[in-house]
UniProtKB/TrEMBL annotation, chain A:
<feature type="transmembrane region" description="Helical">
    <location>
        <begin position="21"/>
        <end position="45"/>
    </location>
</feature>
<dbReference type="GO" id="GO:0051301">
    <property type="term" value="P:cell division"/>
</dbReference>
<feature type="domain" description="FtsX extracellular">
    <location>
        <begin position="56"/>
        <end position="161"/>
    </location>
</feature>
<keyword id="KW-0472">Membrane</keyword>
<dbReference type="InterPro" id="IPR003838">
    <property type="entry name" value="ABC3_permease_C"/>
</dbReference>
<dbReference type="InterPro" id="IPR040690">
    <property type="entry name" value="FtsX_ECD"/>
</dbReference>
<keyword id="KW-0131">Cell cycle</keyword>
<dbReference type="InterPro" id="IPR004513">
    <property type="entry name" value="FtsX"/>
</dbReference>
<keyword id="KW-1003">Cell membrane</keyword>
TrEMBL record, chain B:
<feature type="domain" description="ABC transporter">
    <location>
        <begin position="2"/>
        <end position="238"/>
    </location>
</feature>
<dbReference type="InterPro" id="IPR003439">
    <property type="entry name" value="ABC_transporter-like_ATP-bd"/>
</dbReference>
<dbReference type="Pfam" id="PF00005">
    <property type="entry name" value="ABC_tran"/>
</dbReference>
<comment type="function">
    <text>Part of the ABC transporter FtsEX involved in cellular division. Has ATPase activity.</text>
</comment>
<keyword id="KW-0132">Cell division</keyword>
<keyword id="KW-1003">Cell membrane</keyword>
<dbReference type="GO" id="GO:0005886">
    <property type="term" value="C:plasma membrane"/>
</dbReference>
<keyword id="KW-0131">Cell cycle</keyword>
<dbReference type="InterPro" id="IPR017871">
    <property type="entry name" value="ABC_transporter-like_CS"/>
</dbReference>
């Protein structure tokens, strides 16, 4: 009976305060979408790190006929220089840092290039001897890139030593920045949401002061008097959180795994099921914030 | 049932206290009128019984319990033992008569079956049979006050507090309400009624407690609204006061 009564009270409260409730839903929706977007960016960064860090290599590019670097003054790399570099890679000074390495000839490089840019007209204008041959090194610890760079970049026949990780790091930094920005927007919006919930609960308590006054007089418990108001705020916020979760799922399902993954075939995007991990966090965050702010408001504005 | 021991209530430290060292005992089943001018402390007296306010000093006992020792989460239990009726009825305008009375039972968790059984019974006691489905605005003032009384007593409280329940009603309707209160009192409920209505007090001949500036100046059984015991110099004082008032009025005219 009491449960039915409380549910009825919530229903009438939501109906009477509809426009305020809708605004609470929308504000929590927007703010939690930003929180969720920040979360998704972090998931995406982790996903890409996991995927790429195993695959990234340090590459020692060797001189070819068209190289302009100072180490390449004597023209394309000779067989002797190449053997020398291979010997250095096997030497005790370097060997402990690398797990393995392969030599990629100009023919291999051309083949990879063609695969990678198969859709682009650039393939037709590039010839095999324009591409450098290289040593592809898998590091035991990618952080130790510096050692390889110092040892090899001044060797004859080496054009340049490049760490693919650095390129990725820049992307991750950018994504991190974006997720921080999303968090800042989210924080401002959450602040707005809390203020709005506070106002809504205040109005709701005011518009029902007759009922609560009578409830107090006939000896209704604090829970029975306050719970409808608190749940009103919590329900509005949870609806907002559900909308936010749904939006993020749609983004993951139809944008990340649709358009975007068709454009960036080699990038591992987070799946829409992974986004569902964020949803409970958003719901708990929305519901929790609404509950706490309603409770504090009632303590001030609803005498029990 | 209700006992005040040297109770003082101060709202504003710079003004005189609303109640000044009041000691009073009201027994179980008694019917007591609380009379006195506005600001004499009648409402404060009722608020202290309900623990709406706490006494500045002294103790208030309700049903043998010192209300100062009742923790805030047990105050609802205290209030379930006390029914309250106001001058302005305080019905819920969007609920019908039955729902208004049932509300008091719903919020303390009574089952639907008990509510269906009890509410018509109580409505019969207050003389509102057959009007369960009416809305408050369809009722006369007297009927509305009967609904309010039904709501106050539906949970069978030991005490009924009435704060000027006839203040908005004409004399004949008021007498009807008094009949209802008297009936409730006959059933064993202690009734405390604050009022200005001298006709009613004179008609009922119950105990009268008169407050003046926060002090009990009279406590008489089967009494009238004004004291039957002559106060020395009182009539002279009243005469002087009214003459002074007249002089002032004439002074303004000139």
């Amino acid at each position: 009976m009491r449960l039915a009564f409380i549910l009825g009270e919530i229903g009438s409260g939501l109906r009477r305060n509809l426009s305020m409730v809708v605004s609470v839903v929308l504000v929590t929706f927007v703010s939690l979408t930003f929180v969720g977007a920040a979360g998704m960016l972090q998931l995406q960064i982790n996903q890409m790190k996991g995927y790429w860090y195993d695959k990234v290599q340090v590459a020692i590019f060797l001189c070819n006929d068209s190289s302009t670097a100072t180490g390449c003054a004597s023209g394309a790399v000779t067989k002797e220089q190449q053997d020398n570099l291979a010997k250095m890679l096997d030497s005790p000074a370097v060997k402990p840092y690398i797990s393995d390495y392969q030599f990629e000839s100009q023919a291999d490089a051309f083949k990879h290039f063609k695969e990678q840019f198969s859709n682009s007209p650039i393939v037709d204008s590039v010839t095999q001897d324009q591409l450098p041959s290289s040593f592809r090194i898998n590091m035991k610890n990618p952080e130790k890139y510096q050692i390889i760079s110092e040892t090899f970049s001044s060797q004859p026949g080496v054009e340049t030593v490049s760490d693919q990780r650095q390129v990725l790091e820049r992307i991750f930094e950018w994504m991190n920045g974006a997720s921080v920005a999303a968090m800042v927007v989210a924080a401002v919006m959450i602040f707005c949401a809390v203020l709005l919930i506070t106002t809504t609960i205040r109005l709701s308590a005011f518009s029902r002061r007759r009922e609560t006054g009578i409830m107090r007089l006939v000896g209704a418990s604090k829970t029975v008097i306050q719970l409808p108001f608190i749940l009103e705020g919590v329900i509005a916020a949870v609806v907002g959180a559900l909308l936010a979760s749904g939006t993020l799922w749609l983004v993951a399902q139809f944008w990340l795994n649709g358009d975007l993954s068709r454009q960036f075939l080699n990038t591992p995007f987070i799946s829409s099921t992974q986004v569902l991990v964020i949803a409970p966090v958003l719901i708990a965050l929305g519901g929790g914030l609404a509950g706490i702010s309603s409770l504090l408001t009632l303590r001030r504005y609803l005498k029990v | 049932m209700i006992r005040f021991e040297n109770v003082t209530k101060v709202y504003d430290p710079n003004a005189r206290p609303a109640l000044d060292s009041v000691s009073l005992e009201i027994d179980r089943g008694e019917f007591t009128f609380l009379v006195g001018a506005s600001g004499s402390g009648k409402s404060t007296f009722l608020r202290l019984i309900l623990k709406e306010d706490r006494a500045t000093s002294g103790s208030v006992y309700v049903a043998g319990q010192n209300v100062a020792n009742i923790s805030s989460w047990r105050v609802p239990k205290l209030r379930r033992g006390i029914g309250v009726v106001f001058q302005d009825f305080r019905l819920l305008p969007q609920k019908n008569v039955f729902a208004n009375v049932a509300f008091a039972m719903q919020v303390i968790g009574k089952s639907r079956g008990i509510i269906r059984e009890t509410v018509p019974e109580v409505l019969k006691t207050v003389g509102l049979e057959g009007k369960e489905r009416r809305m408050p605005h369809e009722l006369s003032g007297g009927e509305q006050q009967r609904v309010a009384i039904a709501r106050a007593v539906v949970n069978r409280p030991g005490i009924l507090l009435a704060d000027e329940p006839t203040g908005n009603l004409d004399p004949i309707t008021s007498m009807g309400i008094m009949g209802v209160l008297d009936k409730i009192n006959q059933n064993g409920t202690t009734v405390v009624m604050a009022t200005h209505d001298d006709d009613i007090v004179n008609e009922m001949r119950k105990r009268v407690v008169e407050l003046k500036n926060g002090v009990v100046v009279r406590d008489e059984a089967k009494a009238l609204y004004t004291s039957m015991i002559p106060v020395v110099g009182e009539s002279r004082r009243l005469k002087d006061a009214s003459e002074a008032e007249l002089d002032r009025a004439q002074g303004v005219q000139q």
